[in-house]
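Archive entry. Fields below.
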Amino acid sequence: MAEEPRIGVFVCECGINIAGTVDCDEVTEWARTLPNVVFSVKNRYTCAEPGQQEIKRFIKEKNLNRVVVASCTPRMHEPTFRRCCADAGLNPYLFEMANIREHCSWVHSDRKKATEKAKDIVKVAVAKARLLEPQEELEVPVTQAALVIGGGIAGIQASLDLADAGYQVYLVEKEPTIGGLMSYINKTFPTMD
Amino acid sequence: MDVGRHPKIKLLAYSEIEEITGYIGNFHVKVRKKARYVDEIACTACGECVKVCPVVKPDEHQLGLATRKAIYIPFAQAVPASYLIDMEDCLGNNPIACGACAEVCDPRAIDYDQKDEILELDVGVAIVATGMDVCDPTILDEYRYTKYENVITSWEFEILTGPGYVTRGELLRPTDRKVPKSIAFVQCVGSRAERRGNPYCSNICCMNTIKDTLYLKEHHPEIDCTVFYMDIRAFGKGYEELYKRSKEVGVKYIRGIPGDIVEDRKTRNLVLTVENTTTGKIQRHEFEMVVLSIGVIPRPDTETVQRLLTLSKAADGFLMETHYQLNPIDAPTGGVFLAGCCESPKDIKASVIQASGAASRAETLLSAGKVKVEAITSEVIPDLCKACGICVDVCPYGSITVDRKAKTPASIVEAACKGCGTCGAECRFDALRMRHFTDDQIIAMIDAMFEERPEEKVCIFACNWCSYGGADLAGLSRMQYPPSGRVIRTMCSGRVAEKFVWHAFRKGAPVVLISGCHFADCHYIDANRWTQKRVEKLWDKMEQKGIRPERLQLEWISAAEAVKWTRVMHAVEELRKTVTREEIEETMRILSEEKGK
Amino acid sequence: MAEEVTFKCLRCGYTYKGTYDRKVPEERECPKCGSNSVRPLPKGKGD
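PREDICTED_STRUCTURE:
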């Protein structure tokens, strides 16, 4: 490996969503003892602007080359934090997330056990982070046309919006006419027209 | 309608999508444009053909309550404004037999030999707006919908009072063709019911009934209208006002859902028995007509769209958004957006709002003109590749090629690889490297997980799209389960190589769980079939080695199945408790001796 | 080729007979407990 990993761990309290069940101070302190972790800090909301600013600041100040955020599911905020790392000049694939909210604080009530589990989750994420490698994303062109499936009121509206914006739209409707269920309806609420 | 005339919209009515391939920004679509047997452009919709057509059929656009001919237009304002022939019934199938319409067609638009056309389109984005359907009222048999003619559905009410119907907006009682003097509306038919119908609220039925009562009262103030309900959900802008107006014009509201309906044979009137939950009394009410306010359901063909675009369905059968609050329009597949009732039951306004939202989300991509695709793809390490070709066999996308005879290493088309990692899991020579989910990374995660107190933990592999999402939903729903599970996320369960499972057991795992999408939901076409095959092999090998196969569990958990995830977490914890320290040590010994060889 | 095998649920232990085809994988669910950990037992076992 080219350079020794220098990992920063950011532990999010998510207000009381995480801090209510997991001792975030303990997790933050303990994270510092993990291999290659050179820095750890607790944030109230890591995903909020001040939290993201902290990530960017510490990447520079502490010369971090890997970032682990212990917060919520990567299915939600992984793109947010990847962008944040990229803004600070770090390859976004050198970021790893530890889900201590959906998979921990929200599903357990025993504070001690939840804190132990949260530590393990962070430890596993750090283990992966140590071996992360930068990746280059393939950039592909976007064909300048849209497919709309279904010609009911929603499909019609979406088609018109896109077409008015100047894009070619293919509106595919199964039935012989567009209109969908809406075309059956006599009067509509609440205007009664 | 503007859609038919807009220069930027190509309307493909009477068409079905057969295939969608590609990825965000670059979809290739095959559409079957079904033969109408009438030239859409030439047809002037003069209607001369209908006059001479000898075939009379029930009109499905009027729910069979009216008739149409074999050559027909769904309704007067149809777009495209063109007739079509129902070839199943047309006598022109054999033009010698009939051909009447062609004779009278001045613009010569009729073509009995027209064939289905296959169109191929290239698009960058797709908006799914496949809508919803109405619920089948026969599931609640106590209302005798099929038996009593004067019991109709709210949907039939729309048709019977519609401008296209023969009565021109006048509601007549089916048995005597007279304006009914009294009419009851029964709410929540097929909605908010755990056992029969659907557990969810259909969202639109309360307001629809209020609208119907006002429509009736406007034309016939003397009609006695009564609504039987659980709760009236009038939550939108102007909705409460409309509810009040309906009460002001004399519509009666009784809180209680009728238990049954009985017809008086002589008068054909209907007697409803209901517990009025406000007074707690059992009441009987007689009406000349009853309207069942039926709920809405996902369209049965939602599954086709789901398969074509690898989307997810929620437990209620509607299509799933990426995130309930923060990303309610994007589908889990990149470049695909949801609009209208395919996502959940909603009224017209909400559909239009979501449709504009979907168009705007699509435009964000289109106007950028380019998009980055995740770098999670597979790469070949040529020096290790023995050109055995197993990766070619397992790749769901056909993105790998190899020349087995010439023994030249495999090669991967990166843009076609979606990153399931099945090739990496199946390769026996470690010649395939899954970027961002490498063997080394996953092994290191297992090592970290079991460094301390391994006997207390269950090693869980969860696929990104379904199982991990199911666990997220369990969290979002604050379901509680034992804290023994430790999750390793992979994009697909197909990524979970045999060696990961052995490694976990070698490091002291009491139990390993592999969880993925249900077969129908697999986000990598069929990659998770390989997961199952691999697990079956592992069970056999475990048994041969003297390790209880039970300690490796397999579960298919969708992103909607938070309840199943929770149940499985309890089950694996129970299983973990049966695994003794001695058993774990024995397994570790067996596996490390083997490795030493 | 589809063959008659004994399936064993590795969650609850329930066993039942059914057809199994290696080439055509099907999603299996234990009819008793609903688990997907359903193992097709090798020939000669559980018969």
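CURATOR_NOTE: The first helix of chain B runs from residue 2 to 5.
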